[in-house]
Structure formats: structure tokens, C-alpha cells
Amino acid sequence: MAFGTAITFMGEIFMQQGTRHIWIDVEDLFVYARTASRPSGIQRVVLEICQAMQDDADLWPRVRFVRHSATGTDFVPVDWSSVSEISARLAGDGHETSTGIVRGQKDTTLGESRLQRLGRSVPTSLRVPAGQMIRNVLGLTQATASLSVAAADFVSDVAKAKWQQKTPSRTGEAQFFAPLPGDVLLTLGASWTHATYGALLRQCKARHGVKVAVLVHDLVPLLWPEWCRPGLPSVFKRWYSAVVPECDVIFTNSEATRQDVLNYAVRQKLDLTIPVVTVPMGSGFVTLPPQRSDPAIKTIVDGLGPYILCVGTLEARKNHAVLFRTWRRLLQERPASAVPKLVFAGCQGWLVDDLVQQIRNSAFLDGHLVWIDAPSDALVAALYQRCLFTVLPSFYEGWGLPVTESLAWGKACLISDRSSLPEAGAGLAESFDPDNGSDLLERIKSLLDSPEKLWEQEAAIQAGFKAVPWSSAVHVVKQALGA
């Protein structure tokens, strides 16, 4: 079904039903925030869309937010203020939140720790096993602390959910999930963490007569299971096969993902007769806190010197390994002083333990690789502003927010030629084969050795890039839901 036809068709359906409210399931945001300090792409998209809904005077009064009950068998309303609090915390907006952990160069703000100074006094033959033991102990301590926080948050969440189920609001509206026929239950995030989410949707539709809409971010676990943590492909497959039959509309974050959804349905012989509608992804941060002078951020960025930036969670699918090897080759071919730093900005994810160990073994390429773990939004914005250009060598993306973010900052971007990335690049980003390190190396050398080429790309971006506000996503969702 064509995009415009799908929008009109779904709008008519939902308008006939008389849409009253859109109930957005945000359970995964709360689950994610128990152990994570920064958002991944999925959480970013959910929060940006929700924030942009606030600016829609017609839609916002109809928007409601829900979590899952303590038993996971029903939905429970939750205030927007609770969702907004998570948004601010994940963005790093607050004096109590660090800007990020800088690995690979001396931290001039904190200096050298007493443990590091003590380590230098240990005989060389003992440093490696002692260091490994210390890292293991610290890792266990951090994991235990995270588990304790998660457990405390879980108990608090259960208590709050029970309270909300029983307590009337200040306006007298009961704090329990009671949608009317024609209302919409909208899932924007990672609901596959719920073991029986399809059954929950089916029960909700039968009991209340609501319509269901789900945003699919990618089909990585179905198409590329080798890039996932153990167990996720089977969990995701069960979720997908149970949820799709309950959907009245499927949203996707790109035309590439939309085609993946349609092609998978053909291969699996799924009866996919519902509309599959692409939601435009925004190119900036609605949730970015107001810019302010931050000495810690200035110290980090000023200390980098010239650098090339790669933003995104470190995981096997995103192919940071090819960048590591490319910079090793640059350092073999050129004087170290002629090679800019490579900056990774993102948390550690799946299946990269070997890569992280290689990075450490190389002493972060003797200081030429800097990994900024868990950067705040404000720090990421500063990194975009000051970089020479950006690189995204991923094998597969549902969209590719770092591409549009780079273009929005006016920075040239080298991108993989796979999946949705050329779509995100909008014809303004130079692409390469992510399986071919030599191809990437030559393109990087070309930009380094020909400043005029880099200037031309930046000029083309300035002239041709059209920023996409997150309100565009809200507009498409609203049209499709007849709201």
C-alpha cells in the first residue's frame, strides 16, 4: 500500500471509530533507565517523539502514558512528569550527572587516581594479572551496584503502580487504564522485553475495543542474529510473530525498514494486509538541554586536538572494528603527528569484548583513539561541532540518527552503503563498503589530504540539507491514527 494511501486509509478507520485518546506504552523506558545512564537510538526516538507531541496543541490533551501492571497482565497510567524525568536523566541534564567517561587520554579534570599511582610501583611482571583482577573486582562491584539500584527501582515501580491503580487523580479521573472504543494503544519502544506482549495486546483489544499501532525500529534479530546477544533472536521472533497479528497499523523508521518488514512477511508467509507507514526521523535534539558553558565539556573537547568522530553504541553490528584497523594502518603509513585522533562516543554494547581488549592492548592506539563512554547530550553536541568529519561504518541500521545529526551540524559524514544509511544521508554523505577496510582508508585519506574536498562537502550540506523537525514524525503518526 502506498504511503499516502496508507495514511488516508488509517485516518478514515480511526476517525470512524472516534479516537479519544492515544495511550503510549512507555514501560521499556523505565526498564531501560534502571541500569542505563544514556539512551540508545530507540529510547532517543521515543523521547523525541513524545517531547514533540507536547508542542501539538490539538494532540497533546489526548495523549496518555501507560506502564505495565506488576503482574504484566494489564496497563497502568503514568504521569508525563515521570517520563520527562527519565528523559532529562538520560540526556545528562543535571549537575549531578557526569558528562562522560573519557578513556584513552589523561583525564585532566580528575587527574591520576591513587590506584593508578600505586599500580606504577607494582613490578612489571605482576601488573597485568593484578590489573585484570582489579578490573574484575571493579566490574563486579559496578554490576552489584547496578543490580541493587535496579531492584530498588523495581520495588518502587511496583509500589507506585499499585498506588496509581487505587488512587484517584486530583481532577477526579480514576488512575486506572480504562480506554474507550476508538482509542489507540501506541507502542514506540522496545516492547519485546515483555514475554507475552502479543497476548496483552489481544486482551486489551478484546476488552476495550482499542486499535493498536507499533513502531518497528529494525529487524536485526530476525535478519542478522549473529549481531545480537545470546537469546535475543528467539525472544524477538516470538514477540514479532505474536504482535504483528494484533496491529492495525505498523510504523517504521525508514523506507529501508519498511521494505524489510514487507519482505520478511512474504518470506514467512505472514498475512500482512495492514498499512505499513514510514515515520520521518528528526535531525536534531528536541530533548537537548539549553546550551550553557560547561568547563568539564570544554576541557574534554579542547584536549582532543583534531579528531574524527564516530557516535553510537559500541557493538559488533556497528563495525567499530574496521575503524580501529583503519587507524592502525594510518599510523603505520604516516607520522603520528599527521594522524588526527579517532573518537568513539557511546556506551559499550554487545559482542565487543574482544575489540575493547584489543583497544586496551594497543594503549588506545598510543593515544590516537579516545573512547568517551556514556557522553551526555551536551557533550555529544560539542563533539559534533568541533570534529573534522564523522564516520558511521555500521553493517545495518534501522535508520541512523548519527548521520542526520552530523548533517544537521553541517559536518561531512562517511557512511556505510548498507540498509537505511544512504537514505539517512539524503545524497549528501559519501558512502563506502563496510566490508572493505581499504575502501574506507582511501576515502579517509582523501578527506585528510584534500581539505578543499571536505569544504565542498560541507558547502553542499549547507546548501542542500533540509532539517527534519520531530514534529514531522508526530504529524505522520497523527494523520495515520486519525487523531
Describe the structure.
Mean pLDDT is about 85; it is low at about 1-20, about 105-150 and about 160-175. The protein starts with a helix and ends with a helix. It is α/β, with parallel strands linked by helices. The longest helix has about 45 residues, at about 125-165. Helix 3 (about 40-55) crosses helix 20 (about 470-480). About 50% of the residues lie in helices and about 10% in strands.
Helix content: 40-55%
Number of strands: 14
Distance between the termini: 21 Å
- How many helix segments? 20
Structural class: alpha/beta
Instruction: Order the strands across the largest sheet as they lie in space.
Output: 3-2-1-5-6-7-8
Q: TL;DR?
A:
It contains 20 helices and 14 strands.
Write the layout of secondary structure elements.
Layout: H1 3-17, E1 22-25, H2 27-35, H3 41-53, E2 63-68, E3 75-78, H4 80-91, E4 101-103, H5 114-120, H6 124-166, E5 184-187, H7 197-208, E6 211-216, H8 220-223, H9 232-243, E7 249-252, H10 255-268, E8 276-278, H11 295-302, E9 307-311, H12 320-333, E10 341-345, H13 353-361, H14 363-367, E11 369-373, H15 377-386, E12 390-392, H16 401-408, E13 413-416, H17 421-425, E14 430-432, H18 437-449, H19 451-464, H20 470-480
Parallel strand pairs: 1-2, 1-5, 5-6, 6-7, 7-8, 9-10, 10-11, 12-13, 13-14
Antiparallel strand pairs: 2-3, 4-11
Helix pairs in contact: 1-20, 3-20, 7-9, 12-18, 18-19
List keywords for this structure.
483 residues; alpha/beta; 7-stranded mixed beta sheet; 14 strands; 49% helix
